[in-house]
Design brief:
Chain A: This is PqqD family protein of HPr-rel-A system. The structure holds three protein chains of three kinds. Chain A contains three helices and five strands, in the order ββββαααβ. By secondary structure, chain A is an alpha+beta fold. The chains are: A alpha+beta, B alpha+beta, C alpha/beta. Chains in contact: A-B, A-C, B-C.
Chain lengths: 92, 288, 344
């Protein structure tokens, strides 16, 4: 199966306020508010460099963050599908 | 319309038209001394109409309409016309207010700083605010608190206090009977009696206050207190706001700003006397 | 409601309003869903502070309506684009997406889109997969839509709580006029991001058909305001009037267009070649302005007349009887204009 490539709006399309363990994100194109935890803000930031699939995002995240890459791709892929459903990401 | 009344409550002007004299007479008495809308132009129009033309006389029932109308709002009997006017005004605020972020909360002020109380219906926020308003605090509102996204200040909305069931007797012990409206029995929310805010609340109506503490009271439990995380408060307040979504980004900025800068505490209380003591103690801790 | 029409036509006319006049104007503009358009129209006028504040709020509100409408269009686009079919935005969403004057301050409710009739089934499946759900499971209403109407039964998104109406033509299949839907889609223009809008002539004709051949004229002041803005903006190009007339003839809407031109000219002074007003135009104008300074609907008999008329236009008489009968038995019908009140 070919990997799904995702794209996101540029960072300036979102206003992010860190509340505690959760961040509030105001998504300007939709006017919707999302409460999110890690690694959602990091995924969105990683996509600022252009569209990527789950493996590509894991590679980008690995540069700045420490995590176990073994099952990271599965976790990231699940988050990507959720973000697509709420319109923060789309397939290209 | 046959009968009309205009009033300003805090920063919001209303015009209420009625097919009957009764509701407007009650409004005139209860709202005596309130200002009129700025420039004479009301922000919102409320209409108390007969559901059908003949229903003005036969089994008169009051349909609540206005600039903003709920298509399936049930009419009220004419004897509850005052409640219909109040519901009509609330409806305009809930659906039409765009200058302020509306928080479904009561509010009182001391030393220029505001205490917000919010929670589910029956949590006692209305009674607590009314009681504190007679005991050294300035009453700002029992239903809606208006947060200005431009300044972060809280504006008062001191409408008639809507006392329900047991709260009527609680307040009657503290307050001059001339400040009460007629007893409305058997409304959809039980017995209701309106209480006019005191003169101090009216005199300071146009003075905003900086939010300093948010409480989530819960009536009928042993006294307890629990600090709340900003994200939990944020979610609760988006649910307690009728226009958070409609305001867009300014609403987001105002609400995230509020929950990050103001402490929030959930408090349980067994009776109003102990609740007042709890509030005073928390407020004092805050100041020290 | 004369003050509203006057203010839209000539913003300077507000100079004569007193406080009650202002309150009445605002109530009427809200009732006609024109408060946003009015607020933009009054920009730059000297206003009482209370009114200036309300106008500022109305402009901010319409920015949010616009955002929400464009987002719904984008969501529908993402759901439908894998099908490779043209998706044409209609009404308010089309005006704001295309950046037209008619979209300035406009209130926008549901998302209306048109797609080729052959693609309806696939589109329905794609939308349901993307989170839209049927609004009502009533079998009579459902069969009625599929057999006689010009759209799928309305769908609502389960998360965003917003409706989409998917049309395959612009009038009910039972209506007496049969605009050429295939030509409308064929001539539609792309907005560059995959979404489309009708060509200028069809955009106007859709609004005209919707108002005069379909609806009961509810919200007519706003529809005619849309038409005024579209006619002014598109009419600036040489030969537009002729192309519009030719296109109306193709869709069988010539009489309706002529009426629209007379009405926009009479109400808003639209610079078009409109003939003299017909007697029936005066009845239309009475219906369009049937609202008092409390925002109440007035002239119940005129309104009732137009309600019956709007069903007559959509359906042959026998079918109309059957429809009203079924609706009545289900207790679902309530005629407008019967909610009381006299003009004061």
């Amino acid at each position: 199966m070919a990997a799904i490539l995702y794209a996101a709006d540029p960072p300036e399309a979102r206003r992010r306020v860190s509340l505690d363990a959760l961040d509030a994100i105001h998504h300007r194109p939709s006017g919707q508010t999302h409460l999110v935890c890690e690694p959602i803000p990091q995924i969105l930031e990683a996509l600022a460099a252009g569209p990527a699939d789950a493996a590509g995002i894991v590679a980008r995240l690995a540069i700045a963050h420490e995590f176990d890459p073994a099952d990271a791709a599965t976790i990231i892929a699940a988050r990507l599908a959720e973000l697509e459903a709420i319109g923060l990401l789309w397939r290209v | 319309m046959r009968h009309a009344f205009a009033v300003r409550i805090g920063p919001v002007g209303f015009r209420i038209g009625s097919a009957w004299a009764g509701p407007v007479e009650h409004l005139r008495t209860l709202y005596a001394g309130y200002p009129t809308p700025d420039d004479g132009v009301a922000d919102f129009t409320v209409r108390l109409e007969a559901e059908r033309p003949w229903r003005r006389w036969i089994r008169p029932s009051v349909a609540i309409r206005g600039d903003f109308t709920l298509p399936d709002a049930a009419p009220l009997p004419l004897a509850q016309g005052l409640l219909a006017a109040e519901m009509g005004m609330n409806l305009q605020m809930a659906l039409g207010q765009r200058r302020y972020l509306i928080l479904h909360a009561s509010a009182v002020e001391r030393d220029g700083r505001a205490l917000l109380m919010t929670g589910h219906s029956g949590a006692g926020k209305s009674t607590l605010a009314a009681l504190l308003g007679e005991r050294g605090w300035r009453f700002m509102g029992d239903e809606f608190a208006l947060l200005d996204p431009a300044t972060g200040q809280l504006h008062a909305f001191p409408r008639m206090i809507s006392l329900k069931n047991e709260a009527i007797a609680t307040m009657a012990a503290d307050v001059d009977s001339r400040r009460f409206g007629p007893l409305l029995k058997g409304t959809p929310k039980g017995d209701i009696r309106h209480l006019r805010p005191n003169d101090a609340a009216l005199a300071a109506m146009d003075r905003p206050a900086r939010p300093a503490l948010i409480l989530f009271p819960r009536f009928g439990f042993e006294s307890a207190e629990r600090p709340m995380a900003p994200s939990e408060v944020f979610v609760r307040l988006t649910q307690a706001s009728t226009n958070y979504v409609a305001l867009g980004e300014p609403g987001f900025a105002a609400l995230t700003g509020l929950v990050k800068s103001v402490p929030s505490i959930a408090i349980d209380y067994p009776d109003t006397a102990r609740a007042v003591a709890q509030v005073e103690r928390l407020w004092a801790t805050l100041a020290s | 409601m004369k003050a509203l029409v006057d203010a839209m036509r000539d913003p300077g006319s507000i100079a004569t309003l007193d406080a009650d006049g202002w309150t009445g104007l605002i109530a009427a503009a809200r009732a006609e869903q024109m408060i946003g358009s009015l607020a933009f129209r009054l920009e730059g006028q000297a206003l009482p502070i209370a009114v200036a504040r309300m106008c500022e709020e109305a402009r901010a509100s319409s920015a949010e309506w616009r955002r929400t409408a464009l987002w719904e269009a984008e969501m529908a686009h993402r759901a439908l684009c894998p099908l490779g079919i043209p998706v044409v935005l209609m009404k308010g969403t089309a005006y704001v997406a295309a950046g037209l004057d008619a979209g300035v301050g406009r209130s926008i409710g549901d998302l209306d889109v048109m797609i080729p009739r052959a693609a309806l089934g696939n589109a329905e499946g794609a939308l349901i997969a993307a989170g839209w759900e049927w609004v009502k499971p009533d079998p009579y209403d459902d069969a009625y839509y599929r057999d006689h109407m010009h759209e799928l039964p309305p769908l609502i998104h389960r998360e965003r709580d917003r409706m989409i109406d998917v049309h395959h033509t612009i009038l009910p299949l039972t209506a007496r006029q049969t605009p050429d839907a295939a030509a409308m889609i064929a001539q539609s223009v792309t907005l560059g991001d995959g979404l489309r809008v009708f060509c200028p002539e069809d955009m106007i004709l859709h609004s005209v058909a919707h108002l005069f051949a379909d609806g009961d004229l509810a919200g007519g002041l706003r529809n005619l305001w849309d038409q005024d803005r579209l006619l002014r903006q598109f009419g600036a190009v040489d030969g537009f009037g002729e192309r519009l007339a030719a296109r109306a003839a193709l869709h069988g809407l010539s009489r309706h267009l002529a009426r629209a031109l007379r009405q926009t000219h009479a109400l808003y002074g639209t610079p078009v070649h409109a003939g003299p007003l017909h007697l029936s135009d005066r009845l239309y104008l009475r219906r369009l302005t049937a609202r008092d300074r409390w925002g109440r609907e007035t002239r119940p008999f005129t309104r009732l007349l137009f309600y019956i008329r709007s069903h007559w236009l959509r359906m042959p008489p026998l079918m109309l009887m059957r429809h009203l009968w079924t609706k009545w038995r289900k207790g679902g019908i309530r005629l407008p204009g019967t909610d009381g009140g006299e003009a004061r």
